[in-house]
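hiii so um. not sure if this is the right channel but i have a protein structure encoded as C-alpha cells and i wanna go backwards to a sequence. like what aa goes where. can anyone help
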C-alpha cells in the first residue's frame, strides 16, 4: 500500500499529543495523530493546570472550555492539614496548618499581576476530552484513536513509520518530516536513545477516584476553618466533582492505577460523561470511518524551508 506523506506525525493522544496537535493546527502545520487506545484516559491523573499552561490554552482558544468545567479557584486555592475530615473524637477535625496555594486567597493578586489567566484545576480525564474535541475540530479526520505506531526508522531527512489500526489489524506506512513522540516516554524516546536521567520511582502514588457530595465539609471549612484531610488531600476535582489522592513511599511496592468503581456520570445525578462522542463544533463533525483513508487526501504543506536547510 502506498505510504501516506504528512509533515508531522504525532504519536500519543494524551495531554501532550493532543495539545501539540491543536498548536500545529493553529500554525497551519498539517499532521496526523495516532493514539492506540479507543478513547482518552479513564483515570484522573494530573489535576492542576498551572498558570503558564492556562496562558497557552488561552492563546489557542481552549481556556474558556477548560474553565467552564474546572473547579473555581476559590474551591481549591487553599491547602489544609487536619487530623481527620470527620468524627467526634477528641483528636478529630483538628486543624494543624493551612495556607493559601495555587494562586488562591491572598496569592490571587500576585498571580493576577503576572498573567491574563489564573491556574485551574481539572483532572486529566476531564481535560483530555476537551483537548480531543479541539484537536478534531481543527484537524478533522486526522486524529486517529485506536491506531498505534508499531515501528519507525529515521531516514535522515524523513521518518518512516508503520501504523496499525488496532481494531482491524490493517497496517499503513507513513512518511513524515517530523515525528513527535508524545507517547508518555514509552517507545519513541527509548528507541532514539533518550534516557531518563536521575533516580526513577521516587514515589508510588495511588489515586482513588470517587463521586460523593462533600460540599458540606468544604463549606464548613470555608466558614469555620475546620475541615480538610490529612495525608490524603481531598478537593473538588471540577466545579461539581470531588477527588482524593494518596501517596505512599516507593518502598511499599508497586501499585496499580485503579479505574473508577462504576461508570461516572451515567444517570445518577452526576454530570454527563465527557467520554461520550463530542458534539459537533464550529470546526465540523467528528469524522466517520477510518481516518487513514482521509489522511491520504492531499493537505497543506509544512510552511518554511525544507528540513535539510535547517540543519
Ligand atoms: C495515576 C496517575 C496520577 C498522576 N497524577 C499526576 C499529578 O497529580 N500531577 C501531575 O503533574 N502529573 C500526574 N501524573 C502524570 C501525568 O499524568 C503525566 O505526566 C501526563 O499524562 C503525561 O502526558 P503525556 O501526554 O506526555 O503522556 P500520556 O498521558 O502517558 O499519554 C501518552 C499516550 O500515548 C499513547 N501511546 C503510547 N504508545 C503508543 C504507540 N506506540 N502508538 C500510539 N499511541 C501510543 C498512550 O496510550 C497514551 O494515551 C499522573 C499519572 C498517573 C498515571
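sure thing!! here u go:
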Amino acid at each position: 500500500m502506498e505510504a501516506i506523506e504528512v509533515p508531522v506525525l504525532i504519536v500519543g493522544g494524551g495531554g501532550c499529543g493532543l495539545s501539540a496537535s491543536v498548536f500545529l493546527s493553529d500554525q497551519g502545520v498539517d499532521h496526523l495523530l495516532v493514539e492506540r487506545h479507543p478513547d482518552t484516559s479513564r483515570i484522573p491523573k494530573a489535576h492542576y493546570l498551572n498558570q503558564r499552561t492556562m496562558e497557552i490554552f488561552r492563546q489557542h482558544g481552549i481556556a474558556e472550555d477548560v474553565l467552564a468545567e474546572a473547579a473555581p479557584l476559590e474551591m481549591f486555592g487553599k491547602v489544609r492539614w487536619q487530623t481527620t475530615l470527620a468524627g467526634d473524637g477528641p483528636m478529630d477535625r483538628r486543624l494543624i496548618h493551612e495556607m493559601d496555594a495555587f494562586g488562591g486567597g491572598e496569592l490571587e493578586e500576585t498571580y493576577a499581576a503576572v498573567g491574563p489567566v489564573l491556574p485551574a484545576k481539572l483532572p486529566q480525564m476531564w481535560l483530555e476530552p476537551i483537548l480531543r474535541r479541539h484537536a478534531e475540530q481543527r484537524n478533522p479526520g486526522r486524529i486517529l484513536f485506536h491506531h498505534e505506531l508499531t515501528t519507525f526508522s529515521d531516514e535522515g531527512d524523513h521518518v518512516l513509520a508503520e501504523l496499525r489500526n488496532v481494531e482491524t489489524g490493517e497496517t499503513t506506512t507513513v512518511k513524515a518530516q517530523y515525528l513527535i513522540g508524545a507517547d508518555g516516554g514509552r517507545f519513541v524516546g527509548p528507541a532514539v536513545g533518550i534516557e531518563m536521567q536521575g533516580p526513577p520511582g521516587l514515589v508510588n502514588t495511588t489515586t482513588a477516584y470517587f463521586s460523593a457530595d462533600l460540599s458540606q465539609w468544604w463549606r464548613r471549612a470555608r466558614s469555620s476553618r475546620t475541615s480538610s484531610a490529612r495525608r490524603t488531600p481531598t478537593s473538588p476535582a471540577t466545579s461539581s466533582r470531588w477527588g482524593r489522592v494518596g501517596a505512599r513511599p516507593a518502598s511499599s511496592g508497586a501499585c496499580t492505577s485503579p479505574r473508577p468503581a462504576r461508570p461516572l456520570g451515567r444517570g445518577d445525578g452526576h454530570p454527563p460523561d465527557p467520554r461520550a462522542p463530542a458534539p459537533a463544533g464550529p470546526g465540523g463533525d467528528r469524522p466517520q470511518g477510518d481516518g487513514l483513508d482521509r489522511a491520504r487526501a492531499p493537505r497543506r504543506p509544512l510552511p518554511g524551508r525544507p528540513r535539510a536547510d535547517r540543519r
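oh and The CA atoms of residues 52 and 252 lie 34 Å apart.
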